[in-house]
């Protein structure tokens, strides 16, 4: 026994004590009093040899040392524990684990209560998100923050070497916020592929300022392309994304998106893009925006803007087929004042024709209207619409139009339901431009609509068959039918239409399995050919989802239109097939594709559109999506007449994207 020192040896020893000076020694040969309260957090030391220096209030443990305090546990060959401060100095095969972090190191100076300290030759794992940081000297600044003064590596990958990592200096990693580094390189299998003097990326947070993953592409019409986005988290409710587009053959484009959300139902999303095309020698501009200010129960407004300065913008610079075949762009703005059961509105609407001349399109600039929703008056429902609109055409007839349209609805019956409505419509026009400059027309109309329907069902064990027959008669008596067309109001003309339809539904255990509707319109004013096209609609949910709509001309004995979609699901994917046919417009288009997941980490897709009456194969797209433990790869290829484009996007899970739910990072 040495003065001021208590020595315990000869086997494994355990000490339990609180943060006060009190001690409880177990299996040591003596038992001291325990003045500690039950609320004190205890620290446990287990080792082969244990020494206590009373003057320094320190424990020195050697041989398979383990220290436990709260949810934290540390193992090492040797440890020194300060009773006053809770500091631990550990050397040799250091292993540490708590609720959020585990690490290994050669040496560590740490405080297990504050969860701070310095680690040497350390590898740290954050359990949330699988973030890993390693370096020669790391400092733990808090429960979820580590930094390095020298070089360090960050990844979310298991295994050595890691599939990817960032290596840099002055690394700081704060889970739930961001990571930063200087002189950083992105390494794939420890091979450097990208360098940046400064790196900043979000870590387990959806909104953090920094560069997003670039999009790499190659196109026969645009050449090699690189899309570099930068995200700016301006505030909790505002952000912006800046985009730099480079195309080897066409030039450099720039874009910006700005988004915001404010209290009271205010939100907006605006996008602007510009590129000077060197090959075509012209400027392309796109502006898209949506601003909404619609507080419930009070006056509100919205603005939806869609603008391109060149009709071929989407065909030249947008890879998505739905944009490339877009015919019209619509911009709309509206201010509305709601009342108890009605609303007053001021509307403006502008259309751009991406194929033909926009000058022939009537623009609604503006329209003032009042709408009264259905209001019960006794056993009747009453509604009304009134509008005053100014239609302007650059080329063609313009007009001011006043339209008044009140309606009365009445419904009677339970098993057999009869719904009737009566309406009156008055429309006045003041034309201007071209040949109709001095024309002022008025149109009056009376409308009657009657609908009789019922429902018959029969249940067979688990299957229910439902038949819903319906007869509808729609009559309009109009004083003027030769009007310049501005919108659907002008199509409100003399009509005497009888419709007969039958809906068949099959339900299994209350869930609809299939539905078939047949409708035969009869125009009683159409002389010796009153029968309109017979309409057949089919919808099947199981086992193969099918949608079919076709019209048949009973007078000519020929099919006029067909639209069909079939999906064949199977384990790990599905096939789809569709067709569009229109005899009058000479259209026959087929489409088909598949989605297959041969293994959980790999998804293959392909879609094709074939025009038998036009250009043949109009679009072919294929995609490969691969998801590994810590990274993902997306490759998309598209072929259309005059262009072939391939795009490549990498995802570093935990940095540029969240890991798939089925995968662990």
Question: What order do the helices and strands come in, and which of them pair?
Answer:
Blueprint: E1 5-8, E2 13-17, E3 24-26, E4 43-47, E5 49-53, E6 58-69, E7 72-82, E8 87-97, E9 101-111, E10 116-126, E11 131-142, E12 145-148, E13 151-155, E14 164-174, E15 178-188, E16 191-202, E17 210-211, E18 215-219, E19 223-235, E20 238-247, E21 251-262, E22 266-277, E23 282-293, E24 300-308, H1 313-317, H2 321-324, E25 328-338, E26 342-353, E27 363-377, E28 380-392, E29 398-412, E30 416-432, E31 440-454, E32 456-460, E33 463-478, E34 495-508, E35 511-523, E36 534-540, E37 546-553, E38 558-570, E39 573-582, E40 587-599, E41 602-611, E42 616-627, E43 631-640, E44 643-652
Antiparallel strand pairs: 1-5, 2-3, 2-4, 4-6, 5-6, 6-7, 7-8, 8-9, 9-10, 10-11, 11-12, 11-13, 12-14, 13-14, 14-15, 15-16, 17-19, 18-19, 18-44, 19-20, 20-21, 21-22, 22-23, 23-24, 24-25, 25-26, 26-27, 27-28, 28-29, 29-30, 30-31, 31-33, 32-33, 33-34, 34-35, 35-36, 36-37, 37-38, 38-39, 39-40, ...
